[in-house]
Structure prediction request, 73 residues.
Amino acid sequence: MKLCKMLRWKGFSRDAAELDAFEFVFARNQVQYSCLRTCQPWGTDGELAAPECCNDARTCFEPSRLVRPPKLS
Prediction:
């Protein structure tokens, strides 16, 4: 799954640098997300900023070089 490059969370810089930490963040999904453009938990379109919501169906989406790992079963 592609992520929006405007999606952020506490620890983003550290997690993006370490693949294991990055996967752990999404597996737990217990962090608060925000949009870098609005600095709020919603994007410029007023919709929720979260990995499962920030996709290419939204007008504000900009693809990130990071790719969300698949869901763990």
